Q: What sequence folds into this?
């Protein structure tokens, strides 16, 4: 294990992997204000754990674990974690105006909606799968066996397709 | 819809995101100025307030016990000591639970971290169960020798009845404050405050995780 308590390297890591943070937060939070808070909280927790980052793991594995753990806990609180605890800066990740969620294609919007309807752990699994992680990586991130990762992915994909077809039929 | 369609759809979103997502470096830098997190600073004010009220309350009871020890009635002393012990136990569990929650490593695999967090949060119901046990003590602390010597049958009938009802209620609540009863009216009445909803949600989530793991076990058995 090596210690890397360096702000510069941390910021570079966030810059390179900002998509992971945004996509996880977006899958657990629809409300824009809550999403901002969740992104802040994920980045804060990443920073607070940065000096304990174990280089034996891929940086993405470490990031997914923290982002998912924070998002699932945040989601469960059912209300905004307000800034009484940490006076955090606003808007760390920004989507450019003309490419806000509303401008995404209808199918992508429906995919997000269907994902958000899944249970928390199923949601985590499918995001990791769609992100192109191998079953071994997903098993490292979630703490499941690889065989069970494949079984569950099959089941969740079926569920997701049904939800999507249902939504698309209403189109 | 085919698997490939799902992945391609996600990829198209990913591409758009890659092109349009910007990091506000100044704001991200501000986060790196937060150096240390203490348990106290990461706690909601309501939790600190609860701990402070608990400490003050136990302090008042203990001061009374010490100062009145030589001349207070045995009923007062036994009730007050039991009350103090129950409150200390509940406060101890509350603080211990907060410390354990703060020590769960957020970089652990998601399933185990969430299981630890949810089971710790859900154990808050234990605090309520313990605190309800003190109910009958509030009906006995004022008993004294004068009441024993001069009290009439009517007074003692009412007194014993009240103590028995309080004892029954406290034991009943101790046994019945369980997640399975969450839809009962009395349960919603007791746990109506906003502070309780994360606890109830944690128990629900713990059940979901249990199902998630059960799925894992049955899938494993099917393969055998």
A:
């Amino acid at each position: 294990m090596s210690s890397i308590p360096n702000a510069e390297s941390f910021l570079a890591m966030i810059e390179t992997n900002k998509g992971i943070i945004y996509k996880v937060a977006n899958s657990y939070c629809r409300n824009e204000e809550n999403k901002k808070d969740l992104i802040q909280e994920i980045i804060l927790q990443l920073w607070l754990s940065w000096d304990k980052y174990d280089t034996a793991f891929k940086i993405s594995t470490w990031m997914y674990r923290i982002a998912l753990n924070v998002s699932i806990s945040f989601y469960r609180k059912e209300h905004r974690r307000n800034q009484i605890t940490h006076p955090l800066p606003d808007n760390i990740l920004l989507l450019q105006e003309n490419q806000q969620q509303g401008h995404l294609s209808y199918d992508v919007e429906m995919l997000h909606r269907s994902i958000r309807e899944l249970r928390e752990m199923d949601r985590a699994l499918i995001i990791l799968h769609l992100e192109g992680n191998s079953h071994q990586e997903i098993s490292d991130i979630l703490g499941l066996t690889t065989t069970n990762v494949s079984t569950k992915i099959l089941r969740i994909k079926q569920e997701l397709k049904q939800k999507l077809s249902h939504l698309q039929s209403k189109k | 819809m085919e698997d490939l369609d799902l992945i391609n759809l996600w990829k198209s979103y990913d591409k758009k995101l890659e092109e349009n997502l910007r990091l506000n470096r100044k704001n991200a830098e501000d986060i790196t100025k937060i150096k240390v997190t203490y348990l106290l600073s990461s706690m909601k004010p309501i939790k600190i307030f609860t701990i402070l009220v608990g400490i003050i309350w136990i302090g008042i009871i203990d001061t009374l016990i010490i100062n009145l020890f030589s001349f207070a009635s045995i009923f007062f002393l036994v009730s007050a000591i039991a009350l103090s012990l129950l409150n200390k136990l509940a406060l101890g569990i509350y603080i211990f639970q907060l410390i354990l929650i703060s020590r769960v490593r957020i970089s652990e695999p998601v399933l185990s971290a969430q299981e630890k967090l949810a089971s710790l949060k859900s154990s808050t119901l234990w605090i309520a169960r313990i605190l309800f046990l003190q109910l009958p003590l509030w009906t006995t602390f004022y008993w004294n020798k004068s009441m024993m010597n001069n009290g009439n049958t009517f007074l003692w009938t009412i007194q014993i009845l009240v103590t028995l009802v309080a004892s029954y209620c406290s034991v009943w609540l101790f046994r019945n404050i369980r997640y399975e009863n969450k839809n009962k009216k009395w349960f919603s009445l007791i746990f109506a405050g906003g502070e309780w909803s994360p606890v109830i949600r944690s128990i629900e989530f713990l059940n979901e995780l249990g199902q998630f793991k059960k799925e894992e076990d049955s899938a494993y058995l099917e393969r055998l």
Q: What stands out?
A: Chain B has a mean pLDDT of 86. Chain B touches chain A through 59 residues (CB under 8 Å).
